[in-house]
């Protein structure tokens, strides 16, 4: 039996994981909106402070197409904003 076969048997379906992750992000935003600190939110949810930070950061930024009109191009595989 291969490692990949065991992973396929034990992993949850992707859609299940994505919906659970989205619910966690919503809960993080709700708790933060009540005035809880990032550490308190992390303790309540059962995740790291970095996860809380990333969930809040992802919701604060508009999609790249809505940002200040700059054209994005890729330089060495990374996005770069040009004036």
UniProtKB/TrEMBL annotation:
<feature type="region of interest" description="Disordered">
    <location>
        <begin position="53"/>
        <end position="83"/>
    </location>
</feature>
<dbReference type="InterPro" id="IPR025246">
    <property type="entry name" value="IS30-like_HTH"/>
</dbReference>
<dbReference type="Pfam" id="PF13936">
    <property type="entry name" value="HTH_38"/>
</dbReference>
<feature type="domain" description="Transposase IS30-like HTH">
    <location>
        <begin position="24"/>
        <end position="57"/>
    </location>
</feature>
<protein>
    <recommendedName>
        <fullName>Transposase IS30-like HTH domain-containing protein</fullName>
    </recommendedName>
</protein>
<dbReference type="InterPro" id="IPR009057">
    <property type="entry name" value="Homeodomain-like_sf"/>
</dbReference>
